[in-house]
Write a structure and sequence with these properties.
By secondary structure, the protein is an alpha+beta fold. The protein is built from eleven helices and nine strands. β1 and β2 form a beta hairpin. Bound molecules: nicotinamide-adenine-dinucleotide.
């Protein structure tokens, strides 16, 4: 579908669901961006879920988002159960302002929802020449090390840094693959890769439905489980949001708003060594890119390079949408 047609449709759908024009545009743009970076797990496949939660009054389409100033650097946002895209967008912009003022910004968000890809927000800070960390917790998907039951989310860790034309953005969930990929595979009746999830009996499965009923595997065993816990503490406990398995799954838990928490940290990279930061960063990338390549690798990439190339490649192209998702969009468009 042509991008401009899709954008108008999405804006219209969100407006029909009572979001303001401004908030509808933010949501439409982030969904399209996920498609353009080919993160299909976080794009149009989720539109029906967001609309469903708005209809069930679990996402507030007209949130009164409050920003409490704690200091020149620190802000605490009450998202009033807004759609995550909107509160996270406001929060990262606040974190950028705070860091521009004082060298460091710390912004916590409570009572929010699923915000898509963390890199959306990291990119904004990097464009303003700041280092950034973004954290969010997510619904139960991983078992804590030694436990049988899912409790931690796939809790992504995102770190961005200005690095010349292409931003350096490491944005990774702490599970072998993100849960959205499993949801998407389930919707399209596809298999998931081997070794990323267990069924409810603790056996490895490549069946998406069974994986959703079982547990996903963390990256690097107990280390990944520890990182998931860290993100849950920073995004959940510290911000005053749900934590320890209480974050509601947006797809199938309708017992209340998700109450997701996010944390954004922005840092002026020049605070310690001034302009030398950029010089040393360039040097670091050059040293690493020039290393002898491992077998099968012809180019060493830094985190974010591949996604940036994908985005540029797709920027002017139509978006390919599976028929099952086209049907969902058309249905929402005529409500
Ligand atoms: N909102 C939520 O609740 C939630 C939860 C989980 C994940 N997510 C999002 O899902 C997205 C995908 O997560 P994922 O775990 O599937 O990430 P991924 O596996 O696609 O990528 C992980 C990281 O590895 C880097 N990378 C990939 N190939 C590389 C290469 N050849 N050389 C160097 N670096 C390379 C990428 O740039 C990225 O930073 C993220 O944007 C994350 O924020 C969101």
């Amino acid at each position: 579908m042509k991008q401009n047609i899709l954008r108008s449709k999405l804006i219209k759908i969100f407006k029909k669901h009572k979001l303001s024009k401004e908030h509808s545009k933010i949501c439409a743009d982030y969904l399209i961006k996920a498609e353009l970076v080919e993160a299909k797990s976080h794009g149009l496949t989720r539109l029906k879920m967001y609309c469903n939660r708005i209809q069930k009054k679990l996402i507030n389409p007209k949130p009164k988002i409050k920003i409490k100033k704690i200091s020149q650097s620190i802000s605490h946002i009450d998202a009033d159960n807004s759609i995550g895209f909107v509160s996270a967008d406001i929060a990262v912009k606040q974190a950028i302002k705070n860091a521009k003022r004082t060298g460091i910004g710390l912004v916590a968000v409570k009572r929010s929802g699923h915000f898509g890809l963390s890199s959306f927000y990291a990119e904004q800070a990097v464009k303003k020449r700041l280092i950034v960390f973004c954290f969010t917790n997510a619904p139960p998907a991983l078992a804590p090390h030694g436990a049988k039951k899912s409790l931690f989310g796939t809790n992504p860790i995102c770190f961005g840094v200005p690095a010349g034309k292409t931003p350096f953005i490491l944005d990774t969930s702490v599970s072998m693959i993100n849960r959205g990929r499993i949801r998407h595979a389930h919707k399209l009746r596809r298999k998931i890769p081997y070794g990323v999830a267990l069924n409810k009996f603790g056996k490895i499965t490549t069946n998406a439905k069974q994986a959703l009923q079982g547990t996903q595997l963390p990256i690097a065993g107990f280390k990944g489980s520890g990182l998931a816990w860290m993100v849950d503490i920073l995004s959940g406990i510290l911000t005053g949001s749900s934590h320890s398995g209480k974050t509601k799954d947006p797809f199938d838990d309708f017992s209340g708003p998700q109450n997701v928490g996010h944390l954004f940290i922005t840092i002026n990279p020049k605070i310690f060594i001034g302009k030398n930061f950029d010089k040393e960063m360039k040097k670091s990338i050059k040293i690493i890119k020039n290393l002898p390549k491992a077998r099968g690798c012809d180019k060493i990439l830094y985190p974010g390079e591949r996604k940036n190339n994908t985005y540029k490649k797709n920027l002017k192209k139509d978006i390919l949408i599976p028929s099952i998702i086209i049907k969902e969009i058309e249905k929402l468009d005529v409500i």
